[in-house]
Amino acid sequence: MSYLVLARKWRPRSFDELVGQDHVRRALTNALDSGRIHHAFLFTGTRGVGKTTIARIFAKSLNCERGVSSKPCGECGACRDIDAGRFVDLLEVDAASRTKVDDTRELLDNVQYAPARGRCKVYLIDEVHMLSTHSFNALLKTLEEPPPHVKFLLATTDPQKLPVTVLSRCLQFHLRRLPPGQIQERLAEISKAENVEFEPAALRAIARSAEGSMRDALSLLDQVLAFGGGRAMEDEVRALLGTLDRRHVEAILNALAANDGAALMACVAQLDERAPDYDQALGELAASIQRMALLQALPDLRGEDEEQDALLAGLATRFSPEDLQLLYQIAIMARRDLDFAPDARGGFEMALLRMLAFRPASAGSAPVATPASGGRRAAPGGVAPPAPARGATAASGPASATASSSAVTGAEPLAAATGDWLAIVGQLGLVGTTAQLAAHCTLVWRKGDVVRLKLDRAGEDFRRPQVEQRLAQALERYYGAAVRLEIAVSDGVEITPARLQAQAADERQKAAEQAIESDANVRALREIFGATVVPGSVKPLN
Q1: Paired residues of 41 in beta bridges
Q2: What are the CA-CA distances from residue 426 to residues 157, 183, 407, 413, 523 (Å)?
Q3: What percent of the chain clears pLDDT 70, i.e. is strictly above it?
Q4: Which CATH code for domain 6-174?
Q5: β-strands 441-447, 450-456 pairing
Q6: What is the CATH number of domain 246-358?
Q7: Where are the domains of the chain?
């Protein structure tokens, strides 16, 4: 006994069984019931959305022995023969294999003859865009003025390749991609009818992978049932499709939120054991980030998977809107560049490392210094401000700024020193571009409700109205009073938190390189093997 695949077994046989495409169904049913039936129809859309199926149902409606109707009986000889694919007056032509003009002329030679059995002779030309130019020219006259007993049903996935002369002679219907929810509902109905054990999450994953195609979804379900021994479970579906499990997504996003590179690479190692499709993995990660951005902007938004939305909503609180936009951009750009990577895993790892490197850490996630460290607070971006150089005081750097601010009559030289500005910024809880703007500024003076900052020209790209507004709001919370922020761009900014951070990073780098150079094992390797330290390979531990 031969097995009939689900896509064929569950192909709709009437307009009532059709899933989606309500706009096409309504137009055709009204035309059939009113008798206003055009002689040529063109159905366009991606694969597996129902073009050929609708054409067959339409042909059945025209030739049903009980009369022309939008609801063919499905029981008469004509209906059964059309369903079985043996109706003599339904001529299904594969244009991909009959591209020559001679094939088209041979086909049209029989147009003039009356139907052998049915009411209408129906020509169903699939993938019509594959016809040659000469074939289209041979078809034009007949397509415009066919005999009354002939109907043309054309189907194509690429209507742009059809001549406008053909398009103008047909009623055009574009079949849309089916939404995942609709596909999932249909898969659930079929699974219950087939007595298949399934998990809703598994069918949801299949529906998303189908990309709007019902036929692809049913083919994937067949594949999943073969893989899972007659059942559809989420873990088995994701293993078969190579998609990213929600647990892996959660682990990766948690590691990114915590700025934990070791945990991030551990997630990749665990993921690699499942031999995933890293392109799909990046797509799943991008989709989760996109959903987090939506939930962050619209907290009351409800989707199909409420459990997953609740999880992503909790994760979204650990990221700023700027962070999510940056992570999403990195993910989709990484998909484009994945083919150029030495290997897929390496490309995936580099995408995660870019997310880690370019995302400023939130002030809330930065470790607070202990009193033994001098009570220093985290600077913007989650990086602790550097300690003053040995033998120097914290206020020695910005002395000139203090002197210049004293020239302002009536101005309060409050926190004019860079060290004080560091302390203020560390308490503001800034993230993203707002933190970067503050890090490139120094406080000149505060007078009444006016706070004047001097911005280093290197940070001018971070200056935007919305960013300045967020910084002003943070200062209002800090001072407990209304603040009018004034920012002046200058080339001569003495010391900013960003410059101090860069200086500290340089010092740590030099210390790390010096430690390597002075290491006894390194010296032994040089003397015995002639080894050299690769430039740029030495990185400080913290």
Answers
A1: 153, 171
A2: 58, 51, 28, 19, 42
A3: 87
A4: 3.40.50.300
A5: antiparallel
A6: 1.20.272.10
A7: 6-174, 180-241, 246-358, 371-500
How far is residue 32's CA from residue 54's CA, in Å, rounded to a whole number?
13
Query: Could you tell me the two tokens for 249?
Result: 């997504």
Q: Which residues contact 273 (CB under 8 A, 6 or more apart)?
A: none
3-state helix, strand, coil in the chain (%, to 5): 55, 10, 35
Beta strands in 144-263 (DSSP E): 150-156, 171-174, 197-198, 231-232
The model's pTM is 0.58
Q: What is the pLDDT of residues 448-503, one digit of tens each?
A: 888 888 888 888 888 888 889 889 989 988 888 888 899 888 876 667 888 888 88
Query: Which whole-number Å values give the CA distances from 54 to 6, 214, 492, 494, in the listed order?
Result: 18, 13, 72, 74
Encoded tokens for 252: 């990766």
Torsion on CA atoms 131, 51, 85, 33, rounded to nearest 10: -120
The CATH architecture that domain 371-500 belongs to is 2-Layer Sandwich (3.30)
Backbone dihedral angles phi then psi of residue 412, each to the nearest 5 degrees: -90, 115
Residues 6+ apart with CB under 8 A from 460: 489
Can you tell me the distance from the alpha carbon of 439 to that of 495, in angstroms, rounded to the nearest whole number?
Answer: 10
For 10, other C-beta atoms within 10 Å of its C-beta total 20
Q: Name the class of domain 180-241.
A: mainly alpha
The one-letter amino acid at 371: P
Q: What is the residue type of 157?
A: T
Helices (H) and strands (E) in the chain, counts: 23, 10
For residue 25, what are the CA distances in angstroms to 176, 203, 241, 271?
A: 12, 26, 33, 44
Beta bridge partners of 456: 490
